Amino acid sequence: MDSDALKRFAMIILILSGIFAFASMQSGERAEEMIESTVFFSETHIEAHEEAAETFAIFSYVIAVLAIVSLWADFTKKSFAMILTEITLGLCIVSLYFAQKTGTTGGEIRHEEIRPSFVVPESEHHD
Question: Do 22 and 92 touch, CB atoms closer than 8 A?
Answer without folding.
Answer: no
